[in-house]
Each structure stands twice: as structure tokens, then as C-alpha cells.
Amino acid sequence: MRLNTKPLFFTLALVFTGLFLAQSSAQAQNYQMKPWNWKKYRIKWKMPSNWVAKDKGGRSGKFTASGGGASFRLKPWRDGSVTTAKQVAQRAYRGATSVTGKRIIDQRYMTSKGGLKKYLILAEGWQKGKKVRIGIMGFINPNSSVNLYCRFLWWKKDNARNGGVTYKVAQSFSAF
User: Fold this and answer.
1) pLDDT at site 30
2) Long-range contacts, 60-63 (Cβ 8 Å, 24+)
3) Does domain 31-175 fall into CATH 3.40.1000.10?
4) For the chain, what percent of residues have pLDDT higher than 90?
């Protein structure tokens, strides 16, 4: 008599997947989130307190921060022909030339907050000879005449740590 081991392998796969997701979620929860806003564009978000804001939208016209092996950039999108968050994200994805050999892993609309419409593209590619993950979001803000996009970038080897954290930041964006 031969045992059917398929249910056992399936159960083990589910357990390991659950443990991986729980670990990623726990790591994302370890960071205290600090509120930020950009009044000029009527947008607010939260990012980990260990991320350092390098440029807060002054002369460069963009907000940049980094920490824990991830970088973040939020920038206005001044193109009147773009009418959806998905279009903003797709154009920003095509314009991300610092990452080569890009391929989209996932893309989706995210829950709107304060009327802010959000679309996320998650991709993989190469930068400086290393595999990277890049998250690009397009925003349509009904409270501002200018739309925005943001970009998260981190080394793929750090995905367990940074994937959950950057997603938490992405979920926090809201119009005001």
C-alpha cells in the first residue's frame, strides 16, 4: 500500500507560506510610522521613522527619502493628457530608466483614501549589476490640479524586509 503524500506536501507549503507572510508582516510592523504631508499638492502619507528625508520638495520639486535599504521618491506629474492613476503609473514605469530589464510582477488599483486614486506597479529589474524590486504608484488627486507619482526601490535580496514596509507606506497615501 502506497501513501498519498500530496496532501502532506500541500499542507507544508501552506504552513511555510503562512510563516513567511507572518514574518514579513511582523518586520513591517516593527517600524514606527511618522506622518508626512506635502501641503502644496494636498497629499499626506506615513513612512518609517528610520527613513531620512533628504529633499522635502524644495528647489528640486520632489520629495526623496531613504532608509533600511530602500529609497523613496515622490514627484509631481504635470501632464494634462493623463486622466487615470493607472496611466500615471504606467508612464512613470516606462520612464524609470535607471532600472534595466524591467518586468512587471503585479499591478493593481489600491484603496482610495480621501478621494486620492492610487495605482501600483511592482516590478523587478537590474541596477548596478544587482537584482532590484521597484514599486511605482500613480496618483490622481481631486484636491490638486497636479497629479503625482512615487517610486520605491530596494535590492531584491532585501525583499523580506522592505517589501512589507514599502507596501505599508503605499497604503498610507491620502488626499486632504
Assistant:
1) 62
2) 63/36, 63/38
3) yes
4) 65
